[in-house]
Amino acid sequence: MAAVLGSCKKEAENHVSNKTHSAEKKDTAVAPEIHKEYYGIYMGDFAGKEMITPEIGEAYEGEVYKKLSLKINRITKDSVYGQSIVNGNQRPFRGIFNETTKSFILDEPGNDKTDGRFEVKLNKDSLTGKWNAFTASAVKSPQKTLKLMKKEFVYNPNFMLSENNDLIDWENPKDFAEKYTDDETGKTETYQVSKNRIASDAVFKINASKQNLTEKDLKNLRKLDLEIIKNAVFARHGYAFKKQTYRNFFEQTDWYIPVSNNVDQDLTPVEKENVALLNRFIKYAEDKYDSFGR
Questions:
Q1: What is the model's pLDDT at position 186?
Q2: How far apart are CA 226 and CA 207, in angstroms?
Q3: pLDDT digits over 208-221, tens only?
Q4: Under a CB-based contact definition with an 8 Å cutoff, are residues 99 and 75 in contact?
């Protein structure tokens, strides 16, 4: 019996030893990382020429600026890995780094019509260069230039919209029928007016990342107020918004840096409770509309 137990123990020790050795071999097979000082998020303007159709007049070709977030996660001798985020669309990329010219060639996967190649050059904390779509006919602007600065993402529950922020939702206009009566003739005419949703100053005062919100705090707020207060929670965690309405609000700040299209697991218990309460109110809230020139 002792001999059998001793044999089993020896086999178990050998099994553990073999497992450890295999793991070590796997680790040593991973290519070593280099230039970690270049890792991080680079964010800035992503510009290209597109056809613009104004409300009055003919369409013309003009420069359209978007925000691009380029994150470099890993650099080895042969490869560079990371992700790009624009319009809330997160895409992985892989490429190469030229140490002599300090330049990158970075390719998105190619299985989405918006995928393309970045050719960018590093200068201290900035990246400049161009992007070309793999399928030029599939996108409005197949060639874009970019100018990015290195940014550090930090979660801070105190981050708020500035009172200088535009509180108008330009992306969802709604037509309303209004009447006009001529004082001289007494004739009444009906005409269509396009109006936009507007938020109130409540979005500068209510912070769903810090306060335990109550129904009393929310019951008189407009729908857009509630949406902004809720989405400010996600913006603080670096959520990449697909809806342009929210991007327009938060990209006006100097703290919003999109890093992921899923930050649900990062929310604090207070934030989760507040988001659930806000969702209940958003479902039944109404908007206020007004007309603006642009």
A1: 80
A2: 11
A3: 999 999 999 999 99
A4: no
- Alpha-carbon distance of 235 to 214, in angstroms, equals 21
Contact 158, 233 (CB under 8 A): no
- The answer to whether the CB of 70 falls within 8 A of the CB of 240 is no
Cα–Cα distance list, 53 to 45, 141, 172, 242, 243 (Å): 22, 15, 16, 22, 20
Higher-scoring residue by pLDDT: 51, 134: 134
What does the alpha-carbon distance between residue 247 and residue 256 come to, in Å, rounded to a whole number? Answer: 9
Quote the CA–CA distance of 105 and 288 in Å, as a whole number.
48
Sheet holding 288-290, edge to edge: 168-181, 188-198, 288-290
Q: Which residues of 5-42 are buried (b: 16+ CB within 10 A; e: fewer)?
A: eeeeeeeeeeeeeeeeeeeeeeeeeeeeeeeeebebbb
Looking from the CA of 186 toward its CB, the CA atoms found within 13 Å total: 0
Task: Locate 251 and state its tokens.
Answer: 């990209």
The amino acid occupying position 273 is: E
Residue 211's pLDDT is: 94
Pick the residue with more confidence: 31 or 16? 31
Is residue 198 within 8 Å of residue 170, measured between CB atoms?
Answer: no
Let me know: does 232 contact 263? Beta carbons within 8 Å. Answer: no
**Burial label, 270 (beta-carbon count in 10 A; 0-12, 13-18, 19+):** middle
Tens digit of pLDDT for each residue in 213-245?
Answer: 999 999 999 999 999 999 999 999 999 999 999
Token look-up 């190469």 returns 96
- pTM, 2 dp: 0.83
What is the C-alpha to C-alpha distance for residues 217 and 31, in angstroms, rounded to an integer? 54
